[in-house]
């Protein structure tokens, strides 16, 4: 099955060398969800942009979210999971979800806490590292369980971004493509 792959970065977007940016350039049908403001995310605006991208995507959709993109995906499922075009989403790879409930989470990021905990209406895989500075491993595992997602611990890879040294991350691509089956 050919799917549109919607890549949804987190805070500040994903720059050069980030696996999401590399995937966007190499995977057929991959498109970045564009946010108006990558510097001061507001949940309703980010969820609306994701919803528009899903609505306008041709055919089936796979989501490849990183960091705050994971929280956006969970909120989209919470608020839009029952709309007709929601059935286009076949699966989501949710990488390094941030703990939006932390007291020290950036105050300019608004509306993402608390993290939704209902089961997602599509297949999902959560990937986390055991030394992510933005989310404790136990919290990421708890969200995966609440969402009905498979969970993979990636070891000590920080926030699973460009600094993690994953390059174009073949294992992540395999997990993403497994969601289309």
From TrEMBL:
One of the record's GO molecular function terms: hydrolase activity
Gene3D superfamilies recorded: alpha/beta hydrolase
Top-rank taxon, per record: Bacteria
InterPro entries (UniProt xref): AB_hydrolase_fold, RBBP9/YdeN
Protein's UniProt name: Alpha/beta hydrolase
Annotated source species: Noviherbaspirillum denitrificans
